[in-house]
Amino acid sequence: MISFDEAMALLSKHIAPLEAETIALSKAAGRTLAADVTADIPSPRRTISAMDGYAVRLESVVSDAPMRVVGEARPGCPYDGPLATGTAVRIFTGAPLPEGADCVIMQEHASREGEDVRFSAGFGPARHIRQQGSDFAKGDIVLEQGTRCDPKALVAIAAGDRSETAVHRQPKVALLATGDELAEPGSAQRAPYAIPDSTSYALAALVEREGGVVTTRERGLDDLPALERQAGELLGSADLVVVTGGASVGERDFAKPMFAAHGLEQLFDKVAIKPGKPVWLGRAGETLVLGLPGNPTSAMVTARLFLQPILALLQGASTAHRWRSMPLAGGLPATGDRETFARAAWVSEGLCPLGNQDSGVQGGLARADWLIRCPPGQAELPVGAKVQALQF
Predict the structure, then answer these.
(1) Total number of domains constituting the chain
(2) Quick one: 229 and 287 in the same domain?
(3) Residue 374 belongs to domain spanning
(4) pLDDT tens track for 323-334
(5) How many C-beta neighbours within 10 Å does residue 353 have?
(6) How much is the CA Rg of the chain, to the nearest whole Å?
(7) In terms of domains, do 161 and 182 share one?
(8) CA distances, 284 to each of 153, 171, 223, 235, 277 (Å)
(9) pLDDT tens across 167-205, in order?
(10) What pLDDT, on a 0 to 100 scale, did the predictor assign at position 208?
(11) CA distance 140 to 322
């Protein structure tokens, strides 16, 4: 067995991003940039007003003295011509500043009387102007390669007047749950020894949330020749095959043997963690194969720890787990000889470890929103102790 950190290093060493493609901005949500995005126009494009008020030449303003209002400026509709000394232009937020103006006095400090306006004392010192290019200039990098296009990133791309962007292709992922006992949820009650396949839907949701495309979601019986045929079909249609169950060393554990006939090269086999020791990773031809344990909690913990970073790597994003130092709101038992990832729920006082940490637990899994990282041989920790935690 290798350590968790060693396994993560192997991911970074052996998994390269998929090829790039250029897509419309309207399709870019959730995708990862394959190249830096530069701005085609500056932001702001012109020097503009940051407030509703009046554009003036500051040197010509005298408190409580009338100034002639000679026009109006709105976003997309600038005032035509230079601003003469001693005059003002009614201006609205986002409107281009008239030529010659160097200050916008907020309307709260203005008193309008017909074509004249007076400004009360104390309207400064802020000038309420956004200079052209003060956000970014034409040609500036607004987003770096590897950035995921979340809603905030889409704002930056569009603000640079980009209608298209280069992203990495979405990973095609095939899901295979193995075991004679598995049944489609809703049908298990009709067979006395069947259990619902409770992880496949969850894994599909995780893949899609992380930018992948689920090409197929299948189940396989514990029949090696049939599984070998099924494996060959899946390998030909996906960048990554995720197989759950059959990862131990029993006589009917076929997760690895089913891919051996297709040239499986294992990158690691078992990781010294709890839960999830049987997790493994290999490659058959050009396709990655990730093996997850059959127990639902083990499968979802290892999916968070390994599947999520694999999807990120295939899309050119960072794989670094964002561990946070957080206080315990409940005691944490001592750990054994493996690195342990305890499930916990956030409460107002901190992280509260779930009472039942068994790898087969399903009912309590939905309450776990953090994983606490516990090194091997860690002593029991009291309430208030600081731990390293990962959002789950």
Answers:
(1) 4
(2) yes
(3) 324-391
(4) 999 999 999 999
(5) 21
(6) 30
(7) no
(8) 36, 16, 20, 8, 22
(9) 999 999 999 999 999 999 999 999 999 999 999 999 999
(10) 97
(11) 28
Instruction: Supply the CATH number for residue 154's domain.
Output: 3.90.105.10
Q: CA 376, CA 277: separation in Å to the nearest integer?
A: 13
What is the Cα–Cα distance from 275 to 357, expressed in whole angstroms? 9
Mean pLDDT value across the chain: 95
- Residues 289, 238: contact at Cβ < 8 Å? no
Written as six digits, the tokens of 221 are 């019986």
**Domain final position from 264, 284, 314:** 314
Of 241-245, 261-265, 364-368, which range is least confident? 364-368
309 with 332, same domain: the answer is no
Q: Kind of pairing, strands 67-73 and 87-91?
A: parallel
**DSSP readout, 260-299?**
HTTTEEEEEE-BSEES-TT-EEEEETTEEEEEE-SSHHHH
Grouping H, G, I as helix, E, B as strand and the rest as coil, residue 29 is coil
Mean pLDDT value across residues 36-55:
98
- State whether 310 and 175 are in the same domain: yes
**CB of 321 closer than 8 Å to CB of 392:** no
Element of type H or E holding 390: strand 386-391
Give CA–CA dist 98/219, Å, rounded: 68
259 in the same domain as 210 = yes
What letter represents residue 187's amino acid? S
- In the structure encoding, which two tokens stand for residue 366, read together? 């939905």
251 pLDDT exceeds 70?
A: no
Same domain? 38 vs 98: no
Contact between 372 and 347 under an 8 Å Cβ cutoff? The reply is: no
User: For the chain, where are the alpha helices, taking DSSP H only?
Assistant: 4-14, 151-159, 200-209, 224-235, 257-260, 296-302, 308-314
